Structures are given as structure tokens and as C-alpha cells.
Amino acid sequence: MLKLAFVTIITVFTAFFAIDLKKTEKQPSPVEETAEKNYQTYCAGCHGGKMDAFVDRKWKYGNTKENLYKSIKTGYADGGMPAFEKSFSDKEIKDLADYILKGIKNVDRYTSSEKPLSDTFKTEESTVKLVNVFSGAKVPWGIAFLPDQKMLVTDRSGELYLVNENKQSEKVLGVPEVRASGQGGLMDVVLHPDFAKNNIIYLSYSKPKEGDSKMQTTAILKAVLKGNQLENAKDIFVAEPYSTTRHHYGSRLVFGKDGYLYFSVGERGNEKGNPQNIKNDLGKVHRIKDDGSIPADNPFANKSEGQKTIYSYGHRNPQGMALNPYTGELWSNEHGPRGGDEINIHVKGANYGWPVVSYGINYNGTTFTELTTKPGIEAPIHYWIPSIAPSGMAFVNSKIYKGWEGNLMVGSLRFEYLNRCVIKNKKVVKEELLFKNIGRVREVRMAPDGYLYIGVEGKGVFKIVPVS
Ligand code: HEC
């Protein structure tokens, strides 16, 4: 089973990098093959099936060839790292060090010293320009487009802005108090599907517990937008329990094809207690009706146990969600631990495995679990090692961009670019890194006018306009 998983991983990786390596591709040498085999036999049990997991390691003893050689040879008995001087020859240890060094180079694929020199970018398919349409928000977490060309932009600090097509903005009044700290604050915004008739919007935010300065949770607010004022504001969902941590709020909001509101709630940093526990709301994707009531066919709606709003569980921190406009499926991405960031397609009632199954590794470099797949657990359709820290995402379903139609765009917080994913048969078959070092790309949205917009931390909101 485990062996099969490794083979699968290696196959996936080979296919993945084949795209970039086509020209220089060569068969691994017998030395590399032996090192790889030794790694799988002697190291993978503790360090994970893919030595790429070393990519995101905070090195304690250094990562030069000499450092690695010493670590492997003498081990660190007190730290739990065995010595391998008796198992391997000097040469075998050096080969293993080379093997790890090669693996950690995978991060170079994403890092680049290239700085944007102008607002115009040549991409593989065309040349596009980034036009700034709003610069008022420090962390533009969520964007929603109104029928009258205006847009709503949340700033994580707690402000909601109404922006017109001339870049003029006003603050919306009546926004709830948020705990803008850590990863929390005012987060996503979405319009009711009938907004043109009822002016209803939804906001997700980190809600402080009343009378308690240490506890907060993810909440969803429903309100009517009248001019620049929120009226009849009411929480229609407050995730239980509140937590003292200030991260992993999840918080993406998406209306499904069924007219129900889907949203993510992260596990708030408690992976042991929350994602697999169906009796609380954390580490879940939920589904509710537009008024907060429960759809009768929710997985736990009629069960004696389990939160009735749960749609899927076993999640870590989904910060990107989008409705696939071609299939109607709900897609999401979520942050894995130090690598193993995932793209998932949501199946009603399914378990996405965190922390039972993961491609990532613990921050101390040991694996959470040796399992990358398991019966009864939904596998991601794609994962990133190293972690790109994915955020907002959107499908391009307009003809405005040459060669991009049907692609999935994902913002990277960590490497500060927009990730273009070409999708075939529910697989990411190719990726392109756009706008390298533009800044942390927090939000990605398709507007009704067929243009893509991105929210970049510290810079604001940009419209992507093709120029050739
Ligand atoms: C029994 C579990 C276990 C096995 C098997 C194991 N390691 Fe380790 N390894 C660890 C632990 C735990 C640490 C961290 C030690 C510490 O923090 O002092 C570590 C540390 C290391 C480091 C140093 C990392 C740093 O931060 O500087 C290297 C390199 C390393 N291991 C490589 C290997 C290789 C290569 C193999 C296989 C030949 C291997 N390990 C097998 C548990 C293991």
C-alpha cells in the first residue's frame, strides 16, 4: 500500500517536472537510483516519502553537503536521528547528501529575483497589463462585483470599501467588529445570487467572543447593502467552539449551483481536536441556505451525531474556493503543513483526511503520517511541495485572455505570484508563474465583465488587461 503510494508520488512528480525539464531530461544514473532506494528504505519512514519534504525545513545542523554528510553519518541520538555510519559506506552517505541537495533545489522553481519592471508582463500566451483599480486596502482579502460596475473590497483590518469605476471609494458603514490580529479580521465577501433584487451580501470575519479578549471564531454575517450602509446585519453562522489561536480561519464564501452558501472554516491550529471531529465546526466546509437554515440533504442533517451544517470535513485551512463554471463542482485549495498544499474537489460528506493523511511534513521535519492515501479519504487532485501558500482562486471562463480559457488561477502568498493551472480531466497538467514578485496575491476573482481581478497585499486591486 505504502509502496504503491510512493510509486504514485514519483510518477506524478516525474510527469509534473517533465514539462519544464523536457530538454534536459535524462535517465537517473545508477548512483541516483541507489541513493533514492536507500532514502526510501532508511529515511522515508521518519522524513516522509518524498525527500522534497526537506525543501521547507528549518535546518538545524545546516544544509551544505558537509553538514548533511555529518548529520547522516553521526546522527543525533538525543534528537532521535540515528547514526548511519555502520549502515552505509562514505560514498553512499555522500550520494544520499547529493540526493537531498538535488531535492531541495525544487524550491528554485518558485523563487526568483526577477522584480516587476513595469505594469506590463509577457506571458507564455500573450502580453497583459496590470491596471490598478483600487489601492485603499492593505490586505484586500475579498472582492465582489456589483451589477452597477462598482465593487466591494474587504480589508482584513476590518474595513469594507465600495469602489466605483473611477477608483473612488467610500467606507461601508455597519460592518461588524472584527478581531484583526494574526490571520484574522474582515475576510471574504459574496453577493446573494439575487443581489440585483434584494441587495443582500455576506461577509466572513473573525468574531471576538463577547467579554473575552482572548477567544475568537469564524462567523458569517448577512446584511442588506443600502448605499454605503449595511442594514439588518445578522450573524447567520458562528463557528463553535471559539479558540484562543489567531490563525486558520478558512473563511471563503461561495454560492453553489444549488443556491446554497458554501464556506470554509479552518481548524484553528488544533489538528488533533478539530478536523476529524464531526461534533464541532472547525476544519470543515459547511453548507447552509441563504438565511442560515440547514438544507435537508446535508450529510449530517438527519443523523444523531455531527454538525448539521457540515458539507465536508478533515480540512486544515481552505483559503481559496471557486465554483467550477464548467462542471458546477466546488473546488478549493488549502494550506498543508510545510508542503502538501492541496487542490480539492468537494464531495458531499467526504473526509479530506487532515491530519490522518497528508503530503506535508511536520515543522520539525518528521512526517505527520506515512499515509498519503487511505480508503474512505478523498485525495487531492493536486498538491504543491514546496508550499506556495495558496489563497484566492478563480476559473477563467471568458474569451478575453488568449489561451487561458478554462484555466484555474491561484494566488500564492509565499512566493508572491499568480499561479496559472491548466486543467485536464481534473488534473493540473501544466503551471505557469505569472507576475513574479508582484506581492502576496490574496484574492483572485472573475468579474461579470469577463476580466480577472487580483487583490495584492500592500498594493490593492488590479484588473488584468490583455494588450496583445
Ligand atoms: C527514526 C527516525 C529517523 C530516521 C530513520 C532518519 N532520521 Fe534523519 N532525523 C530524524 C530526526 C528526529 C531529526 C532531527 C534531530 C534533531 O533535531 O536533533 C533528523 C535530522 C536529520 C538531518 C538534519 C536536519 C537538520 O535540521 O539539520 C538530516 C540531514 C537527516 N536527518 C537525514 C536523514 C537521512 C538521509 C536518513 C536516512 C539515511 C535519516 N535522516 C533517517 C529522524 C530520523
Automatic annotation (TrEMBL):
It holds the Pfam family Cytochrome_CBB3. InterPro entries: 6-blade_b-propeller_TolB-like, Cyt_c-like_dom, Cyt_c-like_dom_sf, Cyt_C_IC, Glc/Sorbosone_DH, Quinoprot_gluc/sorb_DH_b-prop. Residues 30-104 form the Cytochrome c domain. Gene3D superfamilies: Cytochrome c-like domain, TolB, C-terminal domain. GO terms for molecular function: electron transfer activity; heme binding; iron ion binding. PROSITE patterns: CYTC. Keywords: Electron transport, Heme, Iron, Metal-binding, Transport. This is PQQ-dependent sugar dehydrogenase. It comes from Pedobacter cryophilus.
